[in-house]
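Sample intake sheet
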Amino acid sequence: MTRRIVCLLACLLLLPAFALAQDSFVMAGFDGEDSTHNWETNGFFTRMEARTGVTFTYEQYDSQEAWQAAKDAMFASGELPDVLFKASLSTQELIRYTDSGQIIDLAPLLETYAPNLWRLLEENPDWRAAITLPNGKIGALPAIQVPATQNALWINQTWLDRLGLEPPTDMDSLRDVLTALRDRDPNQNGRADEIPLTFLGPWELKFFSHAYGVVANDYNVYLDTDGQVRYWPDDDRFFEMAACLRDLYADGLLDENGFYTADNLRRITDDEATLTYGAFFAPTPVNLVTYEMSKQYVVVEPFVYEGGQIYRDFISPVTRGTFAITSACDSPETLLSWVDVLYTEEGAIEAMVGYEGQDYVFDAQGYWNWKGGLENMSTAVLSDLSLYDTGDMPWLFPYGFYSQYAEENVRRINTELDKLTAFVVRPFPEYTLTAQQSDDVRQLQNVLGTYVDESLARFVMGQEDLTPEGIEAFRQGLRDLGMEEMIAFWQGIADGLE
C-alpha cells in the first residue's frame, strides 16, 4: 500500500497527503438506460485505479426502475455500499438520508480531502449553494458543465443563403423569414412541404418570451431586478407573445402538429430523407436531424427587445446527486480524494478519452482525435474506453478540450452554442426545496402550470379569444387556481436566499 501512495503522490500531485485506511470499496450506481458499459472492465475504472490505488466491487444498474428499487431497499435494510456513483439521487433522498445519517455530510471534509472541487465551489458560490441542502449538509457531489446546456433556436443557414436571407433578429423579422421558408421552396424539391418552424408544445413556445424581455422558469416565475417574484403569464407581454404566435400558427408558419407530436416522432434519422425543418428549438441540431443534416443549422441569437438581448439559462451548470458516501464507508477521505481527481482538467480528460498517445492523439493544428480515427473505432472499443456518455458522473466536464475535437462540425456546433453565453440569464437563483416545500409547490404547479400551458395552446390555435374579455377571463383563472399563492411561495424562497 505504501508503494501505491508514493507512486500516487509522485505522479499526480493531485491528492492531499494522508494515510489510506482502506483501498477497496463497494460501489453501486446507475449508468443510464442506454448504457453499454461494464464497470468491471471499463477503462475509466482501470485508469482511476492506476492513478489512486483504489479498487471497487460493483453493483451496476442500467434501468432507472431497478436502480430506484435498489436504492429504496438498501436504505430500508441498512445494507449499504460504501459509495453511490452516478447515483441519480433526488434532493428529497439526499435530505432524508443525510438526516438519518445513512449518507454522510461531505461539507466538513471537502476543503481537506477534495481541494480541487473545494476551489471550484469557493470561486463559484452559486455552485456550492446548488449542492447544499436545506439542512445545511452536502450529501452528494455534482457534475459540473460550463457552459451549461441550452435549448437554442436553430435555423437552416443553407436555406437562408439560398434565399438571400439573414437570420431573424425579432418577432417581425422572424415572420418574414418563416414566410420565405414556407413559400420559396428552400429544399428545392418542387413541393410545398417545408415546415418553417417546428416546436414541441407550449413549453418550447414559451422560450420566445426572451423576445419580450422576459425569461421565466418552468414554474412561470422570475425574479425582477428589485427582488420581486413575477408571474409571467399575468404580464401584458405574455399576451403580446400569444397573439404573435397565434398569427404565425394561423398562417402555417408554425408546425401544425406542434401541439400533438412527440419528440421521437419528429426526429429525422435517415440522411436520404427530405429535410423539411427550417427552424426548431433543441440543445443541438443532432437532437432533431441527422449528423450530416446538422451541418446546415446555426443558432439564432436572442431577439432584441428595447435595445437589449437576454435568453433563458435553461439548465444549471450543476447537476446534483451524482456521488454520495454512505455510513458503511470506513474511509470517506479516501473516496473523496479519489473523486477529486475528476474535478481537475487532467483527470477529467483522462476520464473522458483515456491516455494521450495510446487512446487519442493531437494533430498539427492542435485538434485531438481517437488514435486511428473514429472510423476505425468499434462501438465496443468506445464503450470500454470511458463511461461519461451515459448517466451523470461527478466531474468538471472538460469543455475546452472537448471543443478541440478534430471533427469540424462538433467544433462548429459548440461555437454556435457559445453565441448564447453572453446573453443567458437565470430566471431565479439556485435553490433547494424541503420535502414539504416540494409537495406544496407541486400541488400548485399541477393545477396552475397545466392551466397556463393548455390556455397558451388554445390561444395559439385560435380556440380561445385574445380579446380583453378573454384575457381577463384567463387572468381570473390564474387567480382562482392559486397564482397569488405561487408568487408568495417563491417570494419566500427568494427572500430566504438573501
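Comment: The chain is about 45% helix and 15% strand. Confidence is low (pLDDT under 50) at residues 1-20.
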